[in-house]
Amino acid sequence: MSTTSTPSPAADPDACGSDPHDHTGHDHGPTGSDIVTGLVRGFSILALVVPAFGVIVVLAALASTPSTPLVALLGLVLGGLQLASLVVTGLVVQRGDRRLSVHPALVTARSVLDEILRLAVVLWALVLWPAQPHGPIGLWIGVGCAVVWVALTTAQLVSSRRRIASPSDWSQEMVATLLLEKVSVGRTMVMRLLDVVGLVLFQIGATVLITAAPVMAVATIVLSIASGLSTLMLVRRAPSDRLHSAWAFAPLGIGLLTAALALLASLSV
């Protein structure tokens, strides 16, 4: 028989009073069920907001259209090629050392490859349509590329919503991490949306920049590497520190900077 007695509510300063259901003045934080509900709601909202943002971008780009829709098709091709490079690097990591996924060399190599692909597609477009104004060509190649990434992000959000709603090792690990590190679900979703905005701005801005002056591919390579390395720095931090780190805003900041440079380059042409 155990001789350990259970402390009474009056003797326990951490107890919630004599009424076990009265939690006045005590913050117990969210439960696992609350986290799951918040994640499902958050992923559902983002799965609607992200494609809506993509539609707004496309509609805004209609103000400056090229004479042929094939330019946008080239943008879709560019996005597909970048996606293929992402898949290939993922396979390399899976079959090799998984530590490569957080190695600066791999991030740098993929950034360089993506920008070389962008340069090649832009030069191809300029050869195909030499009489076309460069501005609409760069804009719509960038929009087409951004649409691919918006579609991929939306698919990931829908998949994440389904996975978090059903018991699995992945969902349990994610919920446990958010509980242990006391990470806000709402803030996590906001940062995810800002990442998407930064990505779209970078894809469009970098393409317009290279179209205005192909030598600016050097600048887009540097900006792409900076964005990738900032994400790498963020991944290496504890989950509770990521949302409060300045690195979390780097992709958005780089996207805004790239878009601003592209606007200046277009005005100077």
Automatic annotation (TrEMBL):
<protein>
    <submittedName>
        <fullName>Uncharacterized protein</fullName>
    </submittedName>
</protein>
<feature type="transmembrane region" description="Helical">
    <location>
        <begin position="190"/>
        <end position="210"/>
    </location>
</feature>
<feature type="transmembrane region" description="Helical">
    <location>
        <begin position="247"/>
        <end position="267"/>
    </location>
</feature>
<keyword id="KW-0472">Membrane</keyword>
<feature type="compositionally biased region" description="Basic and acidic residues">
    <location>
        <begin position="19"/>
        <end position="29"/>
    </location>
</feature>
<feature type="region of interest" description="Disordered">
    <location>
        <begin position="1"/>
        <end position="30"/>
    </location>
</feature>
<keyword id="KW-1133">Transmembrane helix</keyword>
<feature type="transmembrane region" description="Helical">
    <location>
        <begin position="112"/>
        <end position="131"/>
    </location>
</feature>
<feature type="transmembrane region" description="Helical">
    <location>
        <begin position="137"/>
        <end position="158"/>
    </location>
</feature>
<feature type="transmembrane region" description="Helical">
    <location>
        <begin position="43"/>
        <end position="64"/>
    </location>
</feature>
<feature type="transmembrane region" description="Helical">
    <location>
        <begin position="70"/>
        <end position="92"/>
    </location>
</feature>
<keyword id="KW-0812">Transmembrane</keyword>
